[in-house]
Amino acid sequence: MNPYKQKIIESFDHAVSYEQSAHIQKIVAKRLISFIKTLNIDIEKPLSILEIGCGTGLLTQYLLELFPKARFIITDISPHMIERVKDKFAKNHSNIQFRVMDGEVIDLTQSFDLIFSSLAFQWFENLETSIQKITELLNPNGYLLCSTLAEKSFEEWRQIYHQYDYHCSFQSYPSLETLESYWPSKRGGGFWKQEDFVESVENGINFIKGLRSIGAHTASKTHHPLSAGQFRKILNQFNDEYGYTTYEVAFGCFKRFAASGFFITGTDTDVGKTFVSACLTKALNATYWKPMQTGLNCDPGDTETVQTLAHIPNEHIITPLIELQEPLSPEEAAKHEAMTLDIDLLDFTLPVQDRPYIVEGAGGALVPIAEYQFMIQLMQKVNLPVIIVARTALGTLNHTLLTIEVLRNHHIPISGVILNGIPNPANKEAIERHGKIKVIAEVPRMEIISDQFIAQFLKEITLFY
Fold first, then answer.
1. Member of which family (predicted)?
2. List of E strands, 28-154
C-alpha cells in the first residue's frame, strides 16, 4: 500500500471522537437516505447491498433500518472503523459481513443490487477508474448511490492560501461537470446534484482540530508544509474574515441498464420510429418488443410490421403487454375499452439473454398512458438507453430539441438521434450543435430493408453500441 493511503488509514484509525465531531457527515448521510427514498426501490426484497467507506456507521444505521431484509457487506479502509461498526451492529444483525477493504481495490467477486458510499470517494486517488470498477459490480437495474466533496469545498481557506501564494493543504476535488464525465455511459445512466453545507466554526484552529478528531486532516499528496508563522497568518486571516467554512457536496445516482439494447422513441407521429426499430432489430440481431400497442383496428400493429420488414423469427419477438384498438394515445384508447392503465401494475422486466433488445415506445416521450403517467415513466421502468427518431423536414428542430430536453430533465440517458427522411445537412448540424448530441445515422424512407442497406447501417451505428 502506498504511503498516502497508509496516512489516510492511520488518520482514521486515530479518530477517537469521530461521532461527536462529524457534523457534516451526519447531515450528508441523512440527505442521502432522503434521496434514496424517492427512488422506486422495493425495500421488501432480499437485496444484496455493499457499503464502501462506512466510517463509524452513520449511514449504515439508516440502511439497516430502511432495508431490513437485505444482505449487507460493510467495508472501510480503516481496521479501527470496522471494529467500531462491528461493535455497534454485529450482535443484533446476522445479515452483515464486515470487511477491511480499500474502495479503490475491491476484492469481491459477487454483484450487488445496491452500492452506497457517503463522503468516502474524495479520498480516492483515481475516482474515475474507481467508479468504472464499482459500477461493474452492479446487477442489472442496480443502483450506485453516493456522496463526495466537490471542487468548491473549503473555498474560504483556498482563497486565503491563494492570497499569500501558499500551497493549499486541502485536497482538490472535481467539479460536477467532471463527475458527470466519470459515469460509464454504455453501462448505465447517472447524474449528480449539488448542495452546499455551511458549517459555523468558532475559529480556525478549532476547525483544524475538528478535522483531526474525525481523521479527515490528511493533506494533499503535493502539499508543502508551512512554517509556524505562515500557518499563523492563515489562521488569523480566517478568524478575521470568516466564521464558517463551506462544503460543496455532490450526490450521485447511477443505475445500471436492465440489458443491452435501446428504447426507441419518436419526436412526433409518423417519423419512422417503427421502420428504424425494424432496421435496428435486423442490424443488431435483436429481440423486438412493443410494450403498448394501439390502433389495431386500423392496421396489424407495429410488432407484425417489424417482424415482416426485418424477417424476425417468432422467438425473437415479445408480445405486447397492452393491445388496444383505437389509434389514439394509450390513455385515450384504453378509455374506449373501459380500461384504466397503470404501469406500476405491469411487469417490464427484460429476461436475461445474450442478444440485445429493441423496445419501441408508443408515440413520443410525453404521450399519456394514464393520469400522471407518461411514456417517459415507461422508459424509466424498461431502463435502456434511448434513441430518438426524428424526421428531417421542417419542424424537426423544435420537436427534437424539446424531446432531448425532457429526457435529460428526467435523467434518462440518450444514445443519440436517428433522422428519417430526405437528407437535410442543415437540420442535422443544428440538432447536434444545439442539442449537444450526436446524430447516429440518417435513414431514407424505404418500403424494403435490403441486406446492402443493413450492412451500411450497421457500420454507422457500431460506434454507438
1. Belongs to the dethiobiotin synthetase family.
2. 48-52, 71-76, 96-100, 112-118, 138-149
Q: How far is residue 85's CA from residue 57's CA, in Å, rounded to a whole number?
A: 6
Coil/strand/helix, residue 278:
helix
Predicted TM-score (pTM) of the model is: 0.91
Residues with catalytic roles? 290
| Residue-by-residue pLDDT tens, the chain, 465 positions | 676 667 666 666 555 555 556 788 899 999 999 999 998 888 888 999 999 999 889 999 999 999 999 999 999 999 988 999 999 998 888 899 999 999 999 989 999 999 999 999 998 999 999 999 999 999 999 999 999 999 999 999 899 989 988 888 888 899 999 999 999 999 999 999 999 999 888 888 888 877 776 555 555 666 677 888 888 998 899 898 898 999 999 999 999 999 999 999 999 888 999 999 999 999 999 999 999 999 999 889 999 999 998 999 999 999 999 999 999 999 999 999 999 999 999 999 998 899 999 999 998 999 999 999 999 999 999 999 999 999 999 899 999 999 999 999 999 999 999 999 999 999 999 999 999 999 999 998 887 888 888 888 888 887 676
Residues at the annotated binding site for substrate?
Answer: 294
For 362, the enclosing helix (H) or strand (E) is: none
| CATH classification of the domain holding 452 | 3.40.50.300
Please calculate the CA angle 322-328-330 and round it to the nearest 5 degrees.
35
235 and 337 in a common domain: no
Residues 208 and 341 in one domain: no
User: Does residue 202 sit in the same domain as residue 251?
Assistant: yes
Instruction: Please give the single-letter amino acid code of residue 39.
Output: L
- Binding residues for ATP, by number, are 270-275, 302, 360-363
Which residues belong to the annotated binding site for Mg(2+)? 274, 302, 360
The three grid cell numbers given for residue 254, joined into one nine-digit string: 447511477
Number of C-beta neighbours around residue 22 at 10 A: 22
CA–CA gap between residue 314 and residue 342 (Å, rounded): 28
Other C-beta atoms closer than 10 Å to the C-beta of 184 total 17
**Residue 351 is part of which domain span?**
261-464
CA-CA distance, 43 to 250, in Å (whole number)? 24
The number of beta carbons lying within 10 Å of the beta carbon of residue 427 is: 22
